[in-house]
Model the fold of this input.
Amino acid sequence: MSIYQKYSREVIDGQGRLLSFALDYPPDFNFGYDVVDAIAGETPEKTALVWCNTENEEHIFSFEDIKKYSNQMANVFLQAGIRRGSRVMAVLKRHYEYWFAAIALHKIGAVMIPATHMLTVNDYVYRIRSSGVDAILCTWQNETPEKIVEALEKAGKTCLLWSVQQNVAGFRNLTREMENASTELARLETKAQDPMLLYFTSGTTGYPKGVIHDFTYPLAHIVTAKYWQQAEEDGLHFTVAETGWAKASWGKLYGQWLVGSAVMVYDFDNFEPKQLTAVINRYKVTSFCAPPTVYRYLVRKGIPAMPSLRHASTAGEMLAPEVFRRFTERTGLPLCEGYGQTETTLLMANFRGCEPVEGSMGTPSPFYQIELWDKSGNPVPAGEIGEVVIIPPPNGKQPGVFTAYLDNEEQYRHVWRGGVYHTGDAAYQDENGLYWFHGRFDDIIKTGGYRVGPYEVENILMEHPGVLECSVIGVPDALRGQAIKAIVMLCPGYEPARDLELEIREFCNQKLAEYKWIRMVEFVEEMPKTISGKIQKNRLRGKCG
Done:
């Protein structure tokens, strides 16, 4: 029996389709103690993590290993003053230390703040100031420590600093300190409703929002892992995601371990399709999940045979039907699309037991009560477009849905207006009961599997002396799903020219993380605006479509 069954109640039909799902957990549920340590106690040698990198290093960790190393790391943190409620940023790429750190912080009851190493100094400044971090753990690579030090100086803040594996000036070496720490850790008090994770998610009208999840969040990913990704007992699941993104929580840790599957981690910087498929075949990966961008590359470069692979899934952006068909033709595996948000777990998917339909989000998860509403708060009939909303259970507590926006109660109340959670996403239901994504009610750009808030890019654009007004939108792109395009009104004295376009792109892209790079610039004489003076991005998208 997988440990997930201890905390859930499910009803399945004869085809293996999930009909209903509910959670049952104690008030002090903690993934570190109640899942990782519990598995280590029953089957200590069971494989938890298979890790390799581009330098051909390899490490295979059992659950007993994860328990041991997370206890050592937790003891280092405790000795340094990290406590329940402390906020700790983790910028650890795909290093295996991330898994030790996540479990260690959960056991202490600290709030983990995952972040990507691709952030700029200004990105770090914003996150440091808004979250009030008590400590930062980081990789020694990609000049990450230097950027963090500069960001702390700009923010006027200080905090505990650790790097892993290698010595870095100004940082404590966490790997070395763990060697002298005890492998024993008595259970510390935490509550299921305590804050556990803080993710920053991009917004369209302001800086990234801090999304807070509590300790029930891992349990809500049982459906994600078992019924969408189809991770299985004693299998090996591989999700392509860096640990700075919420997708890592979806596919590289919680649900997979709960359903008894090991997690495959390939530590790389530059995506190379042949290396990815080589990892799948070398380690006999059984289930795989990646954004459509990865599948587009695989299809373009050629897909080798992957005999161990039994299931493939995708999410994050629209998937071209041609990619779907060519991947299925080559592998015999349909691509099962899924949909959810940083604020939630999996909301809809092409689930186990159902025939996947290319382009469809599938059907709603039985774990949530989901409806499509119009702007007046009324359910829309099949065939009509409505906003995806989540209706909470009678007790008002919906595990898997975030519990707060960081220091923004007004925004939290807004998305929960009318007693339901408004996702801001539009969809429609067809006559067969399948749901189809129609677009964002807001303006998030999904490019190459990443979510980019236009406001962040527009702020950089406005620093160029020739830019009077600007707006950033996503436009269709065969490789990335969407590419970032800047619409620019020039200041007097500047004239549209190819050289100026290149200058503006270079000026901005030097200051932006690579996944936020502007790919196109269009000069306009005026911006379409509302009567209140707001730029109408929908008209710009229509113009550029």
In short: Residues 378 and 401 are 22 Å apart (CA to CA).
